[in-house]
Each structure stands twice: as structure tokens, then as C-alpha cells.
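User: Can you help me understand a structure? I only have the sequence.
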Amino acid sequence: MKQNITHTAAGVLAALLLCGAGAAWAQPTPAQIQQQEFQRQQNELGMYYQQQQNNRRTAPSGPSAAEVRAWERREAQVQAEIAQLRRTPFYMAIAYDFDTRQSMWSGGYASERRAVEEALRQCRSANCRVIKTFANTCAAVVEPDSRAKSAADIFVALDKNDRQAAAKAMHSCEARHGAGNCSYWQVRKPLCTGYDYSIYGQR
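Assistant: Let's start by predicting it. Here is the structure, written out as C-alpha cells:
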């Protein structure tokens, strides 16, 4: 009986030692832990680069050389058309009805005659006169506060800069009628015609 107990105790002790040895063997060493962490990082880095490559393959590509050339040809054509429109004279006519004391104008016509016709069409009496025709620029109109009696009393100045046109017209009127005795026609804004002023293409 004593021998059996001794054997049993020895067996239990041996089993515990074996389990302890197994547990010690299963626990990774610091070097193994470091290697595992390095491998994990390498795997994540590889997945990142793979995703980047996939994104580049699926991303839309830029225009082809043929598409770029086609766009350049179209842009050159548009610029040529704009240059042609800027060279084309688009007329405006300004008229004044001396009976009704009303001013009228019509612009953007490729024909000076058409601009005159459309301006005179707005007249209310036979005493209506064309004061000025011009193309591709701005005009400002000033008259004396005593009202215009004839075309000589209406001062028209032309300039591509509308402010310059306004200043010139006022200066001309005041030079004859005195400072403070002249006014712009109806509106302060000068009248412009031509492609650069978006008044063009009328027929």
C-alpha cells in the first residue's frame, strides 16, 4: 500500500513536471514575438500596396493624346471665330425726335443702314433725325439743360472706354453752354455696340 501511494505521488509529480515543461515550450520567446510582429507588419504593408495598385488600375485615366489634339483644334477654332467677330463692324444708330424730345437708338447690326432703319422706326414724329452712327465702340450723349433745338445742340463722344466717352461728351457740352448746364441723355450709362460689349449679330 505504501509502495502504491509512493508510485502514485511520483506519477502525479511527473505529470506536473511534464505539463510545466509543455507550457514552457508553448510560450513564445521574445525573439519569436518580435518575428511575429514583423511578419504582421509586412502583411499589412503588402495589403496596402496591393490596394494602391488596384486603385490605380480602376481609376479613370487622363485624356489621350488624340483627345488633347482635338480639344486644341476646337479651342483654336473658337479663338479664330472670336477674332473674326471682333473685326466685324456692328453698328448702332442714335436718333432724336425734336417734337417729342425723345431719344432712341438701336445697335448690334452688321449693316449701318439696318441700324438707322431700326432707330428711326421708333420715332413718333417727322421731325426725327439720326444724330450719330458708329461701330464697335461706345457713345455718350449730352445735351444742354435748356434742351436741344437742333442736332448741333447734341454732343456725342465715342470711346471704347465708356467712362472716357461720358467725360468727353460732358466736356464738349459744358465748353459751349457752361459748367453745370448740361445733362446726360436719360441714362448715365453710355451706349455701346460690338462683340466686346455683347451687342452684335443683329440682322
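Now, to help you interpret it: Confidence is low (pLDDT under 50) at residues 1-26. Residues 99 and 125 are 7 Å apart (CA to CA). Let me know which part you'd like to focus on.
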